[in-house]
Write a structure and sequence with these properties.
about 500 residues, about 10% strand, globular
Length: about 500
């Protein structure tokens, strides 16, 4: 054996031992730093290795437990997700208001896994880039633009209605609603008619969105896959994820190129302006527009944020209407009175269905589509009780808990649309399914408009009943889904 080989053989165990010792020291150092940071925030005792992950789970029991702990720990407490990682969980509206008051970026730890898909779009960007993009995108959600989408929402909803007329058994509705929202998003984003609700073979873009959404959830729950090298080079899921992202990006880029060509030849007024038109023509105060890469990121971000979260909102609303037949009956009567049976729904019609809107708000209170928000504080934040959360701390806000606070809501776990009568004027700091503050959901009115149109189309065509023995089980997986699906019996009127 050579001298070099002998030295390596002799000293390699020492090098490995030193490396391991470094890592152990780093873990203890980080743990001590976090314990010092959270010294004024008592919380549930963590296990040394897995922290509080076994008790603060994403299922219904875990979400309720997260809310119940608010009473023990003054509305905010640390939750450990391992031996050297923790975040502050905020479960009171007053605390949420303080955290959401600034334009702090999303928690990169929680959201970075989506970056290969949605890039540095509005959801993940921060600082001056986020501020500039937010201002450029705001005109895309002006009321005059939203009015044009009502017809599209109605057309896509009627495709669903025709499918459900043929139903002979209980349907798992989340899948159908997700296809509906994808269909309408494709048309509203860039005027693309995918026919995805009926086609058995999905368009590559639609298939890509489905695969990426599913794979992100799987990656979140596999800690080894959080390491890019392991995920993208050593796992089949990582390769599938990259392939699906490539298909999505290629389609978006092609659509952007084709729209640029169309805009250079068409005359003003030839068609309604859509989201992509506004992205392509938007310019800041210096006369600079968005690059094709920035436009692609915004299109992909809006697709991610819009289709699954809206599908969740609609599905849980239909579930609650099936569960509470008296509310369903009252909503249907209002819809038939103010809109009618066969008339195409218009923008002005949506202002007439006040009780139905109350029922939608109550459903979003109990089952917010995004049950957990996460921020990384860019500045020290002083809570209402005087405690200060230092800059750099990750804060998770449980909307599920905020919306079920017994100090704000009477009988908080019960479904009662009367909470949202105009006279009660519920404050946005207590009911915040679209968040609040500078980084609230820019597409809130877009989503609410679609939810109202779909609910109206379904209720004026069908009676909904729960499927016995298949009660939905809420589970937080990026958005609020049901662990066992959302099954309803759908009976034509």
């Amino acid at each position: 054996m050579s001298v070099v080989g002998t030295l390596i053989y002799q000293y390699l165990p020492l090098v490995v031992a030193f490396f391991i010792l470094q890592k152990i020291v780093a873990v203890f150092k980080r743990r001590w730093e976090l314990q010092w940071t959270f010294k004024k925030f008592p919380g549930p005792r963590p296990h040394f290795l897995w922290g509080n992950m076994k008790e603060l789970t994403g299922d219904y029991a875990g979400l309720v437990r997260m809310a119940d702990l608010a009473h023990l720990y003054s509305g905010a407490y640390p939750a450990w997700t391992g031996p050297a990682d923790a975040q502050l969980v905020a479960v009171k509206s007053e605390t949420a208001r303080v955290v959401l008051a600034g334009a702090d970026p999303k928690d990169e730890f929680s959201y970075a896994l989506m970056r290969p898909w949605i890039g540095d779009g509005l959801l993940l960007s921060s600082g001056k880039k986020w501020d500039r993009t937010r201002r450029l995108l705001t005109p895309a959600f002006h009321v005059d633009i939203l009015k044009n989408y009502v017809s599209t929402f109605g057309t896509c909803s009627r495709v669903l209605v025709e499918k459900w007329r043929k139903s002979t058994k209980a349907e798992e509705i989340f899948h159908h609603i997700s296809l509906l929202t994808l269909d309408s998003m494709m048309q509203c984003l860039f005027g693309f008619h995918s026919n995805c609700q009926n086609e058995k073979t999905r368009h590559p873009y639609i298939q890509g969105v489905y695969e990426v959404s599913d794979l992100i959830v799987k990656r979140i729950f596999n800690p080894l896959h959080h390491f890019n090298f392991i995920y993208f080079y050593l796992s089949s899921n990582g390769r599938k994820f990259q392939s699906a992202c490539d298909a999505i990006h290629q389609h978006s880029e092609r659509i952007i190129r084709e729209r640029r060509q169309l805009m250079s030849t068409e005359k003003p007024g030839d068609r309604n302006i859509d989201f992509l038109d506004i992205l392509l023509t938007a310019k800041d105060s210096d006369g600079v527009g968005l690059t094709d890469k920035e436009i692609r990121d915004e299109v992909d971000t809006f697709m991610f944020e819009g289709h699954d979260s809206t599908a969740s909102t609609i599905s849980w609303c239909l579930y609650n209407l099936a569960k509470y037949p008296d509310v369903q009956k009252k909503c249907r009567a209002e819809i038939l009175e103010h809109i009618g049976k066969g008339k195409e729904i218009t923008w002005s019609d949506l202002n007439k269905i006040r009780y139905t809107t109350m029922a939608i708000n109550e459903s979003m209170r109990l089952y917010p589509a995004v049950p957990l928000l996460s921020r990384c504080l860019a500045r020290d934040a002083t809570l209402p009780d005087g405690r200060t959360v230092p800059k750099g701390v990750r804060v998770a806000i449980s909307l599920f808990a905020v919306h079920r606070d017994p100090e704000v809501w009477d009988n908080p776990h019960e479904f009662d649309p009367e909470r949202f009568t105009p006279e009660k004027n519920v404050s946005s700091i207590y009911h915040l399914p679209f968040s609040i503050g500078p980084r609230n959901c820019i597409g809130m009115q877009f989503a609410l408009t679609q939810v109202k149109v779909v609910i109206c189309e379904v209720l004026r065509n069908f009676h909904l009943d729960l499927e016995p023995g298949k009660e939905a089980q809420p589970e937080s997986m990026l958005i609020l889904r049901s662990k066992n699906g959302v099954y309803l019996n759908i009976k034509p009127l």
